[in-house]
Amino acid sequence: MDFKKEFLKYLHYWPWFLLSLILCVSAGFIFIKVVPPTYQTSALIFIDKKQEDKTKIITISTSQKNDEDNLEEEIRLVTSNEFLLSVIKKVNLNVSYFEKVYTVQNHKVNQVPFILKLTVSKDSLPLTSYDIKVNKEGFVITDTETKEVYRIQGYEGNQSVKDLPFKIILSEKAMKNPSYYFESDYKVSMEPTAIALKNLKTSLSVLADEKLKGTVELKHTGSSPVLSRKILNEIIFLLDKNIVINKQKLFTNTVAYLNQRIKNFTKEKDSIESVKEKYLQNNDIGVMNSYIVEQTADRSQKKETSLLNEKQIKLTYYAISSIKKSGEAQTLGTDYNLDAPTVNQMLSDYNATLMESEVILQRAQKNNPAYIALITQLQNQKQQILNTLDGYLNFLNQNNRVNKTEKSITDSNIKSLPTKDKVLGNINNDLTMKVETYVALLQKKEEAVLNSAILESNLKTLNAPETNYSAIFPQPISFLSASFLLGFLLPFGVIYLRLTLDTKIHNEEDIQKVMTNIPILGFIPKIDTSEKLDNTATSRSLIAEASRALVSNVSYLLPRKKDNKGDVILFTSSIQGEGKSFSAFHNAITLSNHNKKVLLIGVDLRNPQLHDYFKIDKNEAGLTNFLANKSNDWKAFLKKDTNFSHTLDILFTGQTPPNPSQLISNSNFEALIEEAKDLYDFIILDSAPVQIVSDTLNFSYLADVTVFVVKYDYTDKSNLVHVNNFIKKDLLKNVGILINAVNMKRAYGYGYGLKYGYEYQEAKVKEPWYKRGLIYKRSLS
């Protein structure tokens, strides 16, 4: 991309850029002065969430405390409708007061010399505004929408007007000197609560600071810093009040809950104690430890008693067996260790009786009645001993059975000790837990009661509401910069769009993009009417110099001829009005100024133009007369010795024929050209446009060079496509392009300028500056 060319292209439209910049910057400056500036007021508060844990019955685990700095609940509270409605009510945002400083701008104020007493609810207020002025009679109130004027007599506010939603009274301070306020104009804006709530939500921002845990930043945007600070202070106050109220509710609910739980735990503790009591009674347990010792000792005693009883049974069996085996004169043993004193006494008596029988036997015979009586007595005693032993044995066996039963019971009691201990332990554990919980609830209750007595908020104001007096809208520097940028981009966009949509030819590049191999022969500048015909041999006008350059360039396209016949140069264009007749005229004059014999023929039978340059009647006889009747001598129709050159002859078109295509395609025209070649050095043909009619294509083969004329800022690029097709089909031969009517003041960036080795300057075209740049124009290189 050629940046210099692009820059020059847009630089040409500098008046539009300048006008747009002036308008946009001026509008931005006026807007800054007219629109009340908007400021941002901010405050920073800290909410200690950890402080709340002190009043909680259940302590949160460490993993759950990760969210202790989450302030979503507080943010939702501040942005809730109910909370903001309280702010609106406290700050009275339904009514705004302004002092009219300028005709287009009002200055919001917090104090006015009057007081409004609303006669309708704030929810029913109309969305409107009133202009209020104090005069010596009272108040003049004007509805800004309906322009209806209300007059209130007096300053006491006794008069009420049907259509006004308020009564007005002069303030106590203004009552002292009402005339002081006669020259001031005030404006009161009213809005229902719903609109005020919506506006407050729009202007309020509540965000938690991610870096500083537990902090909340409050921002309010408005035109009145005092009101913004008042709103933020009210929000902080109400939030602090809500926190305290919520804490009071929490303490009240906590104490009530604790009382209920304490009551329930008391019943549960008493119930567990009753269960323990019944269990101990049912199991005959006084104290579990003593019960275990007693059961263990009883078991040992029962075991020992059983062992002793079994030992006596064995000894009794042994004693009975020993006694039965003893002879009549044999003493019985007394060392059986029987725990039976009667048996032991009977054994001793038996042995004593036996001793007596031994004494009697020594003195008498065995048949001695005394001896026999003793023996009988011994037998009876021995039998009594055995009988006694049998009875003793029965007694022991009976005791043995009793002992085994008691031992079994004792063993069973011993085995049930762990179970009873476990059951009793569970009862004791439940009881202990209830008692500990009961004590903890009592402690929490005392803490809650003490905390409620010394209740304080966990909200702290880190930064009180402060206003940044650097206006956020409109920001003068940024707004003026944006206005300047808009002033630059607006014309740039319009020009860019226009250039993008523009399909006209403006330079060589536009032509070469379509007709790549066709040479550019030159250009004809756009000149003033007074210089239109200034093309003499000594002229230094732009048209004369451009025509000389064209002749030089055309000469390079002319084929080399061995004969001395003249060259035929055909001038044509795509459509009418592109200047082919003008170009052919000046080309013929320039060639004749070089002392060449030149014949200029008007071959545009439909719309001839050459006669205008020579001030000759359009219907004067000419080419059409010869074409219609070959017997006529075409030389008789020539115009010679014109004011432009004595070597230039002109054959005008003549009367417009009804059949131009048939007329021009007959052999008469070709014969004319062949004859003219012997008489002239150059034959210049001013033909018809090739895109409109086919007249030119019928004789284009006669030309040695075809000069195709396009007009600067006039010819459409699409026309070149059709002409290029004619060239590809050889309907036009040896073609060169001539660009006509180039505006030298508007053409730029392609090296033309206004100099050609000499100081030639185009006559100034006096044209209003605002018309310069309506169409994209570039110069031709």
Topology:
Blueprint: H1 3-11, H2 14-34, E1 38-47, H3 72-78, H4 81-91, E2 95-100, E3 106-109, E4 114-118, E5 128-134, E6 138-143, E7 149-153, E8 166-170, H5 172-175, E9 185-190, H6 193-203, E10 204-208, E11 215-222, H7 225-282, H8 288-325, H9 341-363, H10 369-415, H11 417-453, E12 459-473, H12 476-501, H13 508-512, E13 520-525, H14 542-557, E14 567-573, H15 580-593, E15 598-602, H16 611-614, H17 623-628, E16 648-651, H18 660-664, H19 667-677, E17 682-686, E18 705-711, H20 717-728, E19 735-742
Parallel strand pairs: 13-19, 14-17, 14-18, 15-16, 15-17, 18-19
Antiparallel strand pairs: 1-11, 1-12, 2-3, 2-9, 4-8, 5-6, 5-9, 6-7, 10-11
Helix pairs in contact: 2-12, 4-6, 4-7, 7-11, 8-10, 9-10, 14-15
Can you describe what's shown?
InterPro entries: Bact_polysacc_biosynth/exp, LPS_length_determ_N, P-loop_NTPase, Wzc-like_C. GO terms for molecular function: ATP binding; protein tyrosine kinase activity. The radius of gyration is 68 Å and the shape is elongated. The strands form four sheets. Strands 13-19-18-14-17-15-16 form a seven-stranded parallel beta sheet, with helices on both faces. With 781 residues, the chain is an alpha/beta fold. Helices cover 47% and strands 16% of the residues. The two termini are 17 Å apart. Among the domains are: 61 residues, no CATH class; 199 residues, no CATH class; 224 residues, Rossmann fold, CATH 3.40.50.300.
